[in-house]
């Protein structure tokens, strides 16, 4: 095993707590049952890693197996690093007929054609997601396995999730994706989170959505709190209406765990007219950042409790309706109502 | 502008109703639970509202209100402002012993002292008592519930001795002394 394989192995094990190592090695299925039994997981981690390395050398495992292990680890714990979403647009007529083998062949063929040294690994997970691990090299250097890019795509959806992609490789990856999925182009989705599960849940609509309808009493079942018959609420309808509005925008039940939403302002200052800044033509640039351990949950609570006035402003509802968390707000002209002042919420 | 009047409806037998008005809607539900649990001798109805005026739709079904309690959280400026604006929706008859103020978080921080002075001035100008409550423990909530029930009993006319709401309020009303204003 060469030095690079060893470093990759170290990097994988560094982040796993000892108790999860056993499951991972078992799922990897490259070490024999005797070797697995011989490992003592109560030892310090560096000892365990040394043992694993010696077993790998015994079994003559190569870098290929190690990268497989890394991939298994990432598929099991997808919520690490920063993920970015991209959207495929301009689907061609036969985009819906693309099947897995065709996608794999076209993707690999394109990348191998443009870069001489590159290592691509693809795996299909049971929930229909295709995981791709790419270690980039260039015309002179071997692939660097210490900084692989991970790409996740669900076939026949228009979203691709990418982690750890360097700017110089972006164009190659995008071209390959566009060709392999038979779309016309790909654009930045303006959504980035630490948690891939949250991103997938939001974009693929895997949370419980509430649709507006004439009978807005659907959510009455949430009033399961047994309230005493002598206690009456004066503003019960207002409360229910607020709850309904909040759930229409942010969903009912557990929401995808987004952490931040960023609004970049490039607007003119509109305030009291005795402030001289409003007369200048310059833009007032600023960044408004909302952050929370579960942003959508907090925003939903703001609306239900009445802290933010309803109906929910489109600046906030755009997070779920359009699936983004980075917005640039500009003034469109003197006639349009200022969006910057609507940032009160 | 429809004002909330105290004597426009007929009282029910052995029943008293208290209206808790709070902008944050946090303490009022806990207090309501404590009040209905505490009182065993007569029926207590609790109405929860965020601010006045109350919705017109409920006017028919709403029972006669015997006591109105404004819950003010001294940590929030908005709480005090909301209570002040709600006061203007009460008929002046209400202030003859049927309104009381309950403040929470009176001992946290420096801004609360200034707000406490404004609450006391507000209460003194309306001849109403001010109660201080501690809302973070169950004991505090129960104690506040017991105090409110004591005032409610008198306002609803259930006190066995001939104590009227007006008489009680003249004993318990808040006064702003001159040394308080020097603070």
Automatic annotation (TrEMBL), chain A:
Compartment(s) of residence = Chromosome, Centromere; Nucleus
The record's keywords, sorted A to Z, are: Centromere, Chromosome, Nucleus
Q: Which domain of life is it from?
A: Eukaryota
Question: Key word Nucleus present in the record?
Answer: yes
Per the UniProt entry, what are the Gene Ontology biological process annotations, in alphabetical order? Answer: CENP-A containing chromatin assembly; chromosome segregation
Grouped into one coarse class, the protein's main location is nucleus
GO cellular component: a single term: chromosome, centromeric region
Give the family, as the similarity comment puts it.
Belongs to the CENP-N/CHL4 family.
Protein name per UniProt: Centromere protein N
UniProt source species: Culter alburnus (Topmouth culter)
From TrEMBL, chain B:
Main localization of the protein described in the UniProt heading: nucleus
Q: Does the keyword Transcription apply?
A: no
GO CC terms of this entry: chromosome, centromeric region; nucleus
Query: Nucleotide-binding among the record's keywords?
Result: no
Q: Name one Pfam family in it.
A: CENP-M
Q: Which UniProt keywords apply?
A: Centromere, Chromosome, Nucleus
Q: Gene3D superfamilies, from UniProt?
A: P-loop containing nucleotide triphosphate hydrolases (3.40.50.300)
Give the subcellular location. Answer: Chromosome, Centromere; Nucleus
Q: Which PANTHER family match?
A: CENTROMERE PROTEIN M (PTHR34436:SF1)
Q: What is this protein called?
A: Centromere protein M
């Amino acid at each position: 095993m060469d030095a690079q394989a060893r470093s990759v192995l170290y990097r994988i094990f560094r982040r796993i707590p000892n108790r999860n190592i056993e499951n991972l090695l078992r799922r990897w299925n490259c070490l024999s049952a005797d070797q697995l039994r011989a490992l003592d997981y109560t030892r310090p981690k560096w000892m365990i890693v040394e043992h694993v390395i010696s077993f790998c050398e015994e079994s003559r495992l190569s870098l290929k197996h190690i990268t497989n292990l890394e991939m298994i680890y990432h598929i099991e714990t997808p919520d690490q690093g920063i993920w970015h979403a991209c959207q495929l647009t301009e689907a061609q007529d036969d985009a819906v007929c693309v099947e897995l083998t065709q996608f794999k062949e076209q993707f690999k063929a394109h990348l191998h054609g443009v870069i001489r040294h590159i290592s691509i690994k693809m795996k299909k997970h049971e929930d229909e997601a295709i995981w791709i691990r790419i270690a980039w090299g260039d015309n002179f250097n071997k692939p660097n396995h210490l900084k692989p890019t991970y790409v996740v795509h669900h076939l026949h959806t228009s979203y691709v999730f990418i982690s750890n992609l360097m700017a110089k490789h972006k164009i190659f990856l995008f071209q390959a994706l566009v060709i392999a999925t038979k779309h016309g182009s790909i654009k930045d989705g303006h959504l980035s989170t630490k948690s891939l599960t949250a991103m997938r849940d939001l974009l693929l609509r895997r949370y419980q959505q509430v649709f507006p309808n004439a009978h807005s009493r659907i959510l009455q079942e949430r009033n399961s709190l047994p309230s005493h018959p002598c206690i009456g609420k004066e503003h019960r309808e207002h409360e229910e209406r607020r709850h309904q509005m909040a759930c229409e925008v942010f969903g009912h039940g557990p929401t995808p765990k987004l952490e931040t939403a960023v609004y970049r302002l490039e607007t003119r200052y509109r305030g009291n007219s005795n402030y001289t800044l409003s007369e200048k033509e310059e833009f007032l640039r600023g960044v408004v950042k909302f952050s929370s351990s579960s942003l959508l949950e907090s925003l939903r609570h703001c609306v239900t409790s009445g802290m933010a006035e309803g109906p929910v402003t489109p600046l906030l509802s755009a997070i779920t309706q359009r699936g983004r968390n980075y917005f640039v707000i500009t003034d469109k002209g003197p006639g349009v109502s200022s969006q910057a002042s609507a940032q009160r919420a | 502008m429809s004002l909330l009047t105290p004597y426009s409806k007929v009282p029910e037998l052995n029943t008293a109703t208290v209206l808790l008005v709070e902008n944050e809607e946090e303490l009022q539900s806990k207090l309501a639970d404590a009040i209905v649990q505490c009182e065993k001798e007569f029926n207590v109805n609790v109405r929860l509202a965020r601010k006045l005026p109350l919705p017109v739709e409920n006017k028919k079904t709403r029972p006669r209100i015997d006591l109105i309690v404004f819950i003010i959280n001294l940590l929030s400026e908005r709480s005090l402002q909301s209570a002040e604006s709600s006061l203007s929706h009460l008929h002046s008859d209400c202030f003859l012993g049927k309104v009381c103020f309950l403040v929470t978080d009176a001992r946290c921080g420096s801004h609360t002292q200034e707000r406490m002075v404004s609450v006391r001035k507000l209460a003194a100008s309306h001849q109403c008592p001010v109660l201080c409550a501690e809302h973070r423990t169950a004991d505090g909530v129960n104690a506040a519930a017991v105090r409110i029930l004591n005032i409610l009993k008198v306002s609803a006319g259930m006190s066995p001795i001939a104590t009227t709401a007006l008489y009680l309020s003249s004993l318990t009303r808040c006064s702003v002394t001159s040394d308080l204003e020097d603070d």
